[in-house]
Amino acid sequence: MSRKVAVVGAGQTKCGRRNDVTYIELIHEAVKAAFEDANLSIKDVDVVVEGTMPAPMEGTNAPHLWHVEGAAAQNKPLIRVATCGSTGMSIAHCGYYLVASGLYDIALVIGSEKMYEGVGLTSQAVMSTVADATYERPFIGGAPPAFALQCIRYIHERNFPLEKAAEWAAMVSVRNHEAALDNPYAHIKMKITVDDVLKSRIISYPVRLLDVCPISDGACAVIFASEEKAKKITDTPAWIKGVGYCGDDSMFVDKSLVEWQSCILAVRKAYWRAGIENPLKQIDVAELYNPFTYQELLYYELFGFCGRGEAGKLVEEGIIAKDGEIAVDPSGGVLCTNPIGASGLQRVAESAHQIMGKAGKRQVSNVNVAIAHAMGGSIQFNGIMILSRDKP
Amino acid sequence: MKTKKVAIVGVAQTECKEKIPEYTAKELLYLTVKKLLNQLNITRQEIDFIISSSSDYWDGRGCSNVYTYDGEGAVLKEESKVEEDSAQAVAYAYARLQAEYYNTALVVSHTKVSITPSIESLTHVMSDVVYSRMFGIDELAVAAMQAALYMHKYGVTEEQISKVSVKNLGNALNNPYAHRKMKLKVEDVLQSPILAPPLRKLHCRPSSDGACAIMLASEEVAKKFTDTPVWIKGLGFCNGRHYLGEKDLIDVEALKIAAQAAYKMAGIENPLKQIGVAEICEPYASQELLWYEGLGFCGKGEGKKLIDEGITEMNGELPVNPSGGVLSTNPQVARGLIRVAEAALQVMGNAEKRQVSNVNTALAHSTHGLGGQLHTVIILGR
Question: A130–B77: do the CB atoms touch at under 8 Å?
């Protein structure tokens, strides 16, 4: 039987264009913040788990070996896990399982990206190489066109009027941007209106500039501890209640982008393991991986927050607002901050801090259960972690 | 907490070659996984989760497992990817199998080095971009500096290093999956061209295409798959320093820490006596001698004695690399998993012509990074 595990501390860097620090300094900033948050030091760490998006983005192969000094990983067990956009969640899972297994008591999990680092080879160029070289790459330039396919397919299959869907998406954008103003680590901080979103330029139809995430430099570190250690470290650990992960076939044509099996199955697995039967009632905060506004709408349905085609209602009625029934992305989400290798882990860090009551101005009241999510690949991977105030 | 026992219940490898142009990486993985499933007479439905090991650089694309996902048999399953060192994928799978809801795991790895520019160019970009890269540092250059220092400090000779190549490439003749197999004399090795002094061509790993898959199962279900489960008795991994300017290249502290963690878990106090066979990752012949020391097979500077006295030969006290090791076969990322697979075959008694007699305990070792920065050690037993 595996052990109970909790998040006992988390740290994030300010995200954006971070030309003021090297990549290693950036990672150190997050690790130091996590240590301060948990009141721990390097000597307490038993294992380090690291992850980023494709390493070619920053131009160094096996980057975990290079990051050693920033990552507190010298003469320690170190493992690199990477699963594209869902990397942040996959490393959280790895840290969780390594501690749950009894092999290690305290795991330091670090996700990072320095997307402005690429010289000549931009992050979008690297991301274009995720798509199949023969059949897909000629049609895909970077991430937005791929996910725009999913967005337009969603509108089509649900038979949403285009203008209505665009308006709901714009409302999602406004809510996230407003939330990001309260998040000291967020990258894009601006007050916008629905009209601003609807008038922003098209990036890849139907996705407009304010419907899509930025690229960011940033890092995040989360510390997982065994039950015995967790109790000594903090009075308010955020317990891991359940995790789930699933991946689809790689090709766009071999899967439904709307009845998205990897998402549905990952969510079901996590709900089953965490004993969630009525997500809207049982979950207080959802940190969804929302690089695209339309995708956030689809997630409401696939996560069971509402029925098929009812996402717009949740937006219009404010059910997903900060003071609503389930607060979605009170951090501003990926839409406003996106250092990819860290983005999924930031969802875990934000969820844990909401449970620990450490979320500052973005704190939602009375959080007992939070769900963190990450997505990646060729519209392909979904990972979930459910955290709770009560020990599972 | 009661730890679940975890066993390796099946192993499949491809025949490794300089080039396998007829299959894509995805197809190569598919064929390897299919071979394993057929061997166990099961379908992929019986696999609870998959840990793959590959690398974006070595696959020449962003997010290598995006592309290989279907080839791994992972569609609509839980999967994760451990990048760069596939022996660590086994360690991660072991940890996950401790969860009550898992009983079986598939671990897969592949690399087609033939589709990369070269091992030198891809390990060149492992070096620090500001302080090291401009000097043309790569895996070979660092191994050469390490070998030169080792020879200088402990009086290791070119002949002693060459004996490792003779042993391993000779052993490879018995391995149907090995890439480079040669019957050699020490003089032949010493006559091969110098690549980076003091290392010669036959002191250095080849570049190979290949894949490997192993199936893990918990105690509860292991017997369903095989009569000869191979138990994971211990494991450890550890990372050392990165910057070349601040590390002693022949200090093997990270390996020592990794080995000690694995030995402690497996209850091994005298590795030379208690281990029956070792599969270790020696991309350069000099490193095999150095790793003997880190693994505690001998004292500091005594690696040369083990090879001189024939202790690590096939008929020695502790045969090392009966498969031919990485000197014979090097599908870069998969080489760690191949060490685990070969060690498992030895314990199962299924290593055919390369079988060492009476193996109760086997050691698998893997390393990556320049000069061996991160090491993994796994102990298997009956």
Answer: no
Chain B closest-CA separation from residue A19 CA (Å): 15
B contacts of A254 (beta carbons < 8 Å): 70
Backbone phi, then psi, for A156, in 5-degree steps? -65, -50
Going along chain B from its start, the domains and CATH numbers come out as: 6-117+207-225 (3.40.47.10)
Alpha-carbon distances, residue A347 vs A102, A115, B241, B328 (angstroms): 25, 19, 31, 45
Lowest mean pLDDT among A4-8, A68-72, B323-327: A68-72
C-alpha to C-alpha distance for B109 and B226, rounded to whole angstroms: 22
Tokens of A244: 């789930």
Residue B79 to residue B54: CA distance in whole angstroms: 13
Res A218: pLDDT: 98
Cα–Cα distance for residue pair B369/B237, rounded to 1 Å: 13
Say yes or no: ipTM exceeds 0.95.
Answer: yes
String of DSSP letters for B228-292: S-EEEEEEEEEE----GGGS-TT--HHHHHHHHHHHHHHT-S-HHHH-SEEE---SBHHHHHHHH
pLDDT band at B195 (very low <50, low <70, confident <90, very high): very high
pLDDT band at A139 (very low <50, low <70, confident <90, very high): confident
Contacts of A57 in chain B (CB under 8 A): 62
Alpha carbon B272 to its chain's center: 19
Query: Which domains, ranges and CATH numbers included, belong to chain A?
Result: 5-120+215-233 (3.40.47.10)
pTM metric for this prediction: 0.98
- Residues A126-139: what's their mean pLDDT? 87
Tell me the H-state helices in chain A: 23-38, 63-66, 87-100, 123-128, 143-158, 162-180, 194-199, 227-233, 261-274, 279-282, 293-302, 311-316, 333-336, 340-356
Q: Both ends of chain B: CA-CA distance in Å?
A: 23
Q: Which two tokens stand for residue B328?
A: 């014979």
* Alpha carbon distance A112, A60 (integer Å): 13
DSSP B321-366: -TT-HHHH---GGGHHHHHHHHHHHHHHT--GGGPPTT-SEEEEEE
**Is the distance from CB of A238 to CB of A352 less than 8 angstroms?**
yes
- What crossing angle do the helices spanning A293-302 and A143-158 adopt, rounded to 10°? 50
What is the Cα Rg of chain A in Å? 19
- Least Cα separation, residue B206 to chain A (angstroms): 20
Cβ-based neighbour number of residue A25 at 10 Å? 14
Q: Is A62 on the interface with B (CB under 8 A)?
A: yes
Residue type, A294: Y
Q: Mean of the per-residue pLDDT values for chain B?
A: 97
Amino acid at B39: Q
Does A133 lie at the interface with B, CB-CB under 8 angstroms? yes
- List for chain A the helix, strand, coil content (%; round to 5): 40, 20, 40
State the pLDDT confidence band at B1, using cuts at 50, 70 and 90. Answer: low
Instruction: Judge whether B91 and B107 are in contact, CB under 8 Å.
Output: no
Identity of the amino acid at A248: D
| CB-CB neighbors (< 8 A) of A100 in chain B | 95, 98-99
- What's the rounded Cα separation, in Å, for the pair B322 and A207? 58
Q: What is the pLDDT of residue B117?
A: 94
